[in-house]
Specification:
alpha+beta; 2 helices; globular; Ubiquitin-like (UB roll); 93 residues; five-stranded mixed sheet
Length: 93
């Protein structure tokens, strides 16, 4: 099983769960399984073309999938994915 860590703002779409276990041999398969179980997540994770939104970062352990094989990154049983939405804003000095 793969564990996906859900950020607080998206937990409303996973019945409040902070972690969800799914099956998948690759990152995209795990995300597809997550969205099949919780379809409301799709509009928050994917753009209108069905691609991962640019401000959503996915990590396998401590590694950003953008620097690995993106959705084709292979997973091992027990791996943990983290969904990290980018935070923008702030106040200049």
């Amino acid at each position: 099983m793969i564990t996906i860590r859900i950020p607080t703002p998206l937990r409303a779409y996973t019945e409040g769960k902070a972690k969800v276990n799914v099956s998948g041999a690759k990152v995209q398969e795990a995300l597809d399984a997550l969205m099949a179980t919780y379809p409301q997540l799709s509009k928050h994770l994917l753009n209108s073309e069905g691609q991962l939104r640019s401000f959503i970062n996915i990590y396998v352990g401590d590694e950003d999938i953008r620097f690995l094989d993106k959705g084709e990154t292979e997973l091992l049983d027990g791996d943990e994915l983290s969904i990290i939405p980018s935070i923008a804003g702030g106040q200049g000095a």
